[in-house]
Amino acid sequence: MKFILFLLVCAGGGWYWYTNNNQITEQDVRNFYQQEQAWLDAGNSKAMCEALDEHFSAHITQKNLGGQVLTSDKAKYCADIEQLFAALKSLNEKMGGGVVFNQDLNLDKIEISSDKKIATVAIRSELRMGNESLLMMKVTGEGEETFVKHNGKVLRLSADETAATQ
Asked: Which end of the chain is more exposed for a tag (fewer CB within 10 A), N or C?
């Protein structure tokens, strides 16, 4: 009898752990964006890449390039992020430091699916690169991103956005 009770407790605990570690919440999404800002500030391309689901895909329509659509999977996105941070590091070396990213995000709407497995976020953003006296690049965008949660870790699943570089 004790053994059966032990099995029931273990099964209940396992179910509770699995359910809580794979259901996404609005707060999980907000925490993800805060963490991403810290990775951006630190130039941590590895963490940004690890925060992508294995099936990640992105479709970015470039307004100022005649509506050209750029598509990306996880490998391409990771390579692009590493290249961006390498360019920033090189620029800082040439300019004596001080060149940073600054990002403003507006999470217009966060929707959690009924099974709590997917979060869909309507987002507007502005990413600036420069120093105190010079704005070198500004990218504005809006679109939709989706997130999943696996084993307690929130991962970006997709991004479908329209962006303009100024």
From this structure: N
Could you tell me where the DSSP H helices lie in the chain? 2-22, 26-42, 45-50, 74-95
Q: What is the pLDDT of residues 97-114, one digit of tens each?
A: 888 888 899 999 999 999
Q: Which residues pair with 127 in a beta bridge?
A: 103, 139
Tokens of 69: 């659509």
Please give the single-letter amino acid code of residue 78. C
Question: Structurally, what CATH architecture does the domain formed by 24-165 represent?
Answer: Roll (3.10)
pTM of the complete model: 0.84
Dihedral angle sign, alpha carbons of residues 100, 57, 148, 11: negative
Determine contact, residues 102/128, Cβ cutoff 8 Å: yes
Comparing C-alpha atoms, which of 97, 58, 107 is closest to residue 81? 58
